[in-house]
Amino acid sequence: MEIWLFVVQNLDDIVYRTGEHVSLIAVAIGLAILVGVPLGIAITRHPRAAGPVLYAGAVLMTIPSIALFGLMIPVLSKVGHGIGYVPAVIAVLLYSLLPIVRNTYTAINNVDPALREAARGMGMSSRQRLWQIEIPLATPVIMAGVRSAAVLNIGIMAIAAYIGAGGLGVYITRGISQTDPRQLITGAVAISLLAIVVDLCLWWLQKRLTPAGVQINRVTT
């Protein structure tokens, strides 16, 4: 009952913090898509680079988020952004790269070679094959990587409250520092619900972006 009363009394602030959280995630994931998808495509064209790139991404994922935020403070403070929005976005961008790059690489590599040969036989250039055949067929797997990155980093972004980035993690940090279970539970539940909503929205977007023929093939197989 106390938690419910706390939510009602602070509903405006919860909505505001949710907007902050969504804004941070949207910018970070958007930048990760702009970097990760072309990088994933590039390493399919240069197989020797695939191993080092994917390994570097895997190593990056092993760094604890709080440690990564801490490492960024002295580096970014030299340009006036040691805490707050910028390091939070950069950290989540870095954590988002591996699932997006890996899924893009896997999806493009798994396109049926017979389809590529048929496209070559029709006189399609490499660029045309990429945009008209490979990317449409790879869309479901690429979007699965984006969904994984988004859901994972909604939780990681909560830790960014410790460096002044805002978001729903503020309730968790306050709850810990003030020994207030109402704020802890409110923050944890809000972040979990946000992750579910974002995943469902991205799943809907995945279905919209996937060509109808690919969806039918996935169902029949």
* Mean pLDDT figure: 88
Q: What sequence of helices (H) and strands (E) makes up the elements?
A: HHHHHHHHHH
Range of helix content: over 70%
Largest sheet: none
Detailed description of the structure:
The chain is mainly alpha-helical and 221 residues long. It is 84% helix and 0% strand. It is built from ten helices and no strands. Helix 2 (11-45) packs antiparallel against helix 3 (47-61), helix 5 (85-109) runs antiparallel to helix 7 (126-159) and helix 8 (169-177) runs antiparallel to helix 9 (181-209). The longest helix has 35 residues, at 11-45. It is elongated. The protein starts with a helix and ends with a helix. The mean pLDDT is 88.
Write the layout of secondary structure elements.
Elements: H1 2-9, H2 11-45, H3 47-61, H4 65-76, H5 85-109, H6 113-121, H7 126-159, H8 169-177, H9 181-209, H10 212-220
